[in-house]
Specification:
GNAT_dom, alpha+beta, globular, Trichothecene_AcTrans, seven-stranded mixed sheet
């Protein structure tokens, strides 16, 4: 079965959210800086391109593309589909979540969902870009698995925590501390608000990296529809600010 999109088209989310077509945009003019900044929809194409590079060989990213019913398609076509999926996801976070980056070339990008936010009404935009098995793996296996796992692990804090959905650095920019800055930028906010931060990692070597920033592994879940089982490591970072300090900061300031 062939995918719905054509080789010279670009997936769009226009029909689901009132937005412009997801076509390449000029690179935003930004002064060179290594400071973390939050971006909007005007930069989603560039941010998505960086994430596509960062996750080019990621097993979970390939899980929806390297399926038996995609075997006849070229690597070039699969790459285009991978990039378009990243565009969808990045654009959705620009509207529903928070997208942070570092450097004007979007060398590292993080996609976050803040407390109280969710994307249940927007994930369906991915359906048009996947073939049958890819859709099944995402909507029937991974999506419900992640929802249930997040609920089981966080409990009453599920809707009152920060969620690191994607964090990626382009291969050419690794080793410069960009991911560290992106993590600490948002976990610092979470600390000030007294909230936990949640993530899933598909790469076992990253577990020790996240531990350096206070994340603890809570659970391992499996995706089993592929040729081999894929593991997702569930990690949570509790607020590093003591409860009494958070409570004191939330008190109204009295005039003297």
């Amino acid at each position: 079965m062939k995918p719905i999109i054509s080789n010279n088209s670009t997936l769009t989310i226009k029909e689901k959210i009132n937005t412009p077509k997801l076509s390449p945009l000029p690179t935003a003019s930004v002064e060179t800086s290594e400071e973390v900044r939050t971006i909007g929809i005007s930069e989603h194409v560039q941010a998505a391109a960086s994430l596509a590079e960062a996750f080019a060989k990621d097993e979970i990213s390939r899980y929806f593309i390297d399926t038996n019913d995609m075997a006849a398609y070229s690597d070039e076509y699969k790459w285009k589909l991978h990039v378009n999926i990243m565009r969808y996801i990045t654009a959705a976070h620009c509207y529903k979540g928070i997208v942070t980056t570092i450097e004007p070339d979007h060398d590292a990008v993080a996609l976050w969902m803040p407390p109280g936010a969710n994307m249940d009404d927007i994930w369906t935009i991915l359906r048009s870009g996947m073939v049958t098995e890819g859709r099944t793996r995402f909507f029937s296996e991974l999506k419900p698995l992640l929802h249930q796992t997040k609920h089981d692990v966080l409990g009453v804090k599920e809707d009152d925590s920060y969620y690191l959905v994607y964090l990626g650095t382009k291969p050419s920019a690794r080793g410069k501390g960009y991911a560290k800055k992106l993590i600490e930028h948002m976990t610092g906010t979470a600390d000030l608000e007294g909230k936990a931060t949640y993530l899933e990692s598909s790469a076992a070597p990253n577990i020790s990296y996240y531990r350096k920033y206070g994340f603890m592994e809570k659970k391992i879940v499996e995706c089993t529809r592929g040729e081999k089982k894929l593991l997702l490591h569930i990690m949570v970072r509790e607020s590093q600010m003591k409860g009494e300090v958070v409570e004191r900061m939330s008190l109204p300031i009295k005039a003297i």
